[in-house]
Amino acid sequence: MFKQITDLSGNEWYLIASLWIFLLFFITVGIRLFRMRKDDVDYMKSMPMDDGDRQDVDSAN
Amino acid sequence: MQLTKFNYDNKIVRNFAVATIVWGIVGMSVGLLVAVQLVWPFMNFDLQYTTFGRIRPLHTNAVIFAFVGNAIFMGIYYSLQRLLKARMYSDFLSRVHFWGWQLIILAAAITLPLGLTTSHEYAELEWPIDIGLTIIWVVFGINMFGTIIKRRERHMYVAIWFYIATFVTVAVLHIVNSVQLPVSSWKSYYLYAGVQDALVQWWYGHNAVAFFLTTPYLGLMYYFLPKMANRPIYSYKLSILHFWSLIFIYIWAGPHHLLYTSLPGWVQSLGVAFSIMLIAPSWGGMINGLLTLRGAWDKVRTEPTLKFMVVALTAYGMATFEGPMLSLKRVNAIAHFTDWIVAHVHVGALGWNGFMTFAILYWLVPRIYKTELYSKKLASTHFWVGTLGILFYAIPMYWAAVVQGLMWKEFTPEGVLKYPNFLATTLQIIPMHMLRAIGGALYLSGALMMTYNLVKTMKKGRLLANEPAEAPELTPVLVNERAPHRRLERKPILFLVIALITILIGGMVQMMPTFMISSNVPTISSVQPYTALEIQGRDLYIREGCVNCHTQTVRPFRSETARYGEYSKAGEFVYDHPFLWGSKRTGPDLHRIGKKYPNKWHFDHMLDPTITSPGSIMPPYPWLIEQTLDASTTKAKLNALRLLGVPYTDEDINNADADLQRQAEAIAADLNAQGVSTRPDREIVALIAYLQRLGTDINNTPAATATND
Q1: B655: exposed, middle or buried (C-beta count within 10 Å: 0-12, 13-18, 19+)?
Q2: Weakest-pLDDT range from A24-38, B68-82, B675-689
Q3: Is B157 near chain A, with CB under 8 Å?
Q4: Which residue has the higher pLDDT, B28 or B482?
Q5: Torsion of CA B587, B590, B593, B594, to 10 degrees
Q6: With contacts defined as CB-CB under 8 Å, which chain A residues touch B223?
Q7: Hey, is B9 helix, strand or coil?
Q8: 3-class SS at B51?
Q9: What's the average model confidence in pLDDT over B263-270?
């Protein structure tokens, strides 16, 4: 089954390079996540709950 | 702190909601009609304008761009204002956006039945409408970014990232996939040909699913699900991780639509690898949605909106598991071109898009009308009828797919195809197609129940067109925020640029080598451009939407070479503007149809397919025999194609009309000799010329070899 991604007649580097690009991208995003503060996360999470109008108070009841 | 008073624009939200409902019913009804036509072809009412090939694109466009499109705008216009604590940037632009979008839909509904199509799936609209679409999309972008700029909330919530990614990616996809050279006011040729055109189209096609049917809906989920469940999203960090991974990975996956075709192997493999990886960010979204309901599952029992959301998320999870699975080459070999793909997209469209749209409508309409939903009970009934509809749709389609896919591949012990007649495999699955139509009818009846319920709700309440709100104005940032993503969340333009770069990487890695390195598309010296008559015939093939049921690419399997002939090579398509490989085999592949049957066979087959193929579900095309070919465009077409790189000589173009006439007379003479009375100027003659040419060039000179220069 893995033949289809190993036997590419010299074009494997496209695949390898692409996976490396993604890995680096993924790690970058991951590092950014670890550097987030809990307060900020909680604030962002609560955003949809506060619309600036009276409606949310009604719907919560 | 000083609070500023302002109003949210609910009227534009209401307008998009009404458009969503109206176009939803239209799109689903056309879907039901095409489903019925696959059982009873006479349901086209013997009209060319309502024949499957022309109205199947009408169904897909209506559902994707009219139903889902309006629902996206409804949800964005509601949530964006509230998440940013600002009214939409410009009421005028909102109105232009709304009416412009409806006008484009109307133009599609008129032009597609008329046969004005580019044949690129989900991008069928001809160039004038493409330009209109671009303008309206820019209007939407200006309105959205204007609102973001004048916001009263410093940071952009995750939903807005998805909206930004949607905006920028759809713009890129639409522009790149619409590079056409107009021939007349309603006819154009794509810049790319053959393999390259296929790569661009499926890069677009797959990412239309990603960035029109998925990312905006994930954005809507991130806003409306917490509202409905009345609790914040499960994990904000997961949303960041899955957002960036999703938009990065999705763009690479397009080539999985072209497995085993003549697309270069390494591009296919890239598509497979990234498609498999795609399950992770997709399920990240599903898990984040479902876990938001932790502690609120009791509400699912009583709230129809949450019922719809749970099934929507489950359908999303199923479709995004199935996608990577179908991308595995071994699975794809059986599933591709069968009803499996139809089932797969409908689990997504009916379950994920449809059900989330219903949930949002049920939640939002009572709120902007300041009343309660007319009947929760009816909404629950809608939920169950709709769910049954999805099951009745999907299960028979899976069944049909496996049955037909295996029948295509079955050999007898003597080593010949067990079902050499394609039609035998079609007739086997007709009962499944009937069941599918019942599933579709159930789903549509659910939507009608919702319409009644919402109309009653609207009548009960009164639209609060301008909803008062208040929020403090933004103050300048005094402390530099340490976390980079935190900073990014308040920089919309930078966010747009980074999202743009993220989505460009995949497309560039796949496309640039395929376009620039000639060894990726080895040419074949015996492959020649089409003649003038064949070009006209090819354009009739495009007009009638033959590509919706017939593929033109023979995959390198024993079961296919035994059935159709030599497998398709990249070099055979270098003059195909656009490529016509298709994506579904409701009928057999046609790439090697040329010279397989006499001209008269094709004439009879078009007059009434059951003459040559008893039991066939292909509709008759008598109008091709009656209508006169419009040959006035011939020179313009050849000139346009020459401009795109097809090597027509001056002589070819100057003599185009005479050549066309000569070839048509030869075919008409042959038909007349076989006892068919027809004139050379009829459309059928051009279509026969094209069909008889298909896939024959590689046999022309025995010494024809692939070259790598």
Answers
A1: middle
A2: A24-38
A3: yes
A4: B28
A5: 150
A6: 48
A7: strand
A8: coil
A9: 89
pLDDT at position B468 is: 94
User: Is 70 exceeded by the pLDDT of residue B53?
Assistant: yes
Interface confidence, given as ipTM, is: 0.72
Give the pLDDT mean for B678-690.
97
Q: Helix (H, G, I), strand (E, B), or coil: what is residue B188? A: strand
3-state secondary structure of B189: strand
- Chain A contact for B486 (CB, 8 A cutoff): yes
Q: Does A35 touch chain B (CB under 8 A)?
A: yes
A48 and B222 in contact by Cβ < 8 A? yes
Determine, for residues B467 and A53 on separate chains, whether the beta-carbon distance falls below 8 Å. Answer: yes
Q: What are phi and psi of B694, to 5 degrees?
A: -50, 125
Q: Which residues of B touch A46 (CB under 8 A)?
A: 232
pLDDT digits (tens, 9 = 90+) for B602-618: 999 999 999 999 999 99
Q: Across the interface, which of B248, B265, B486 has its CB nearest the CB of A25?
A: B248
Is B237 within 8 Å of A37 when comparing Cβ atoms? no
Could B483 and A29 be called an inter-chain contact, meaning their C-beta atoms sit closer than 8 Å? no
**The pLDDT of residue B307 is above 60:** yes
Helix ranges, B235-303 (H): 236-250, 265-277, 279-292, 297-302
Q: Do A14 and B502 touch (CB under 8 A)?
A: no
Residue B410: Cβ within 10 Å count: 11
Q: Is the dihedral of CA B536, B537, B540, B545 positive or negative?
A: negative
Helix (H) or strand (E) holding B648: none
Task: Note the maximum CA span of chain A.
Answer: 65
Domains in chain B (CATH in brackets) are: 3-464+492-510 (1.20.210.10), 525-707 (1.10.760.10)
Give the model confidence (pLDDT) of B227-239 as tens digits: 999 999 999 999 9
Residue of B nearest to A48 (CA): B223
User: Partners of B214 in the beta sheet?
Assistant: none
Q: Could you tell me what percentage of chain A is helix, strand and coil, using 3-state DSSP and rounding each to the nearest 5? A: 70, 0, 30
Asked if A23 reaches chain B (Cβ–Cβ under 8 Å), the answer is no
A3/B contact by beta carbon, under 8 A? no
Which residue spans within B502-608 are E strands per DSSP?
523-524
Chain B, window 62-121: residues with a beta carbon less than 8 angstroms from a chain A beta carbon: 79, 82-83, 85
- The span from the CA of A31 to the CA of A44, in Å, is 19
pLDDT-derived band at B424 (thresholds 50, 70, 90) equals very high
Q: Do A9 and B265 touch (CB under 8 A)?
A: yes
Nearest Cα to B348, choosing from B289, B393, B383?
B393
B484: chain A residues, CB-CB within 8 Å = 32, 35
Q: Which of residues 562-601 of B touch A (CB under 8 A)?
A: none
- Taking CB atoms within 8 Å and a gap of at least 24, the contacts of B605-609 are B606/B684, B606/B687
| CB-count burial class (<10 Å; 0-12, 13-18, 19+) for A47 | buried
Task: Looking at the complex, report in whole angstroms how far the Cα of residue A53 sits from the nearest Cα belonging to chain B.
Answer: 5
Measured in degrees and rounded to the nearest 5, phi and psi for residue B628 equal -85, 135
CA distance A23 to chain B (A): 10
* Residue of B244, B328, B482, B514 to mutate, testing the A interface (most A Cβ within 10 Å of its Cβ): B244
Task: For B430-441, write each residue's pLDDT tens digit.
Answer: 999 999 999 999
Closest to B246 measured CA to CA, from B204, B290, B206, B280: B280
**Residues B233/B162, Cβ–Cβ less than 8 Å:** no
Q: How many CB pairs under 8 A join A and B?
A: 124
Enumerate the residues of chain B whose CB falls inside 8 A of the CB of residue A8. 265-266, 269
Q: Which residues of A5-25 are buried (b: 16+ CB within 10 A; e: fewer)?
A: beebeebeebbeebeeebeeb
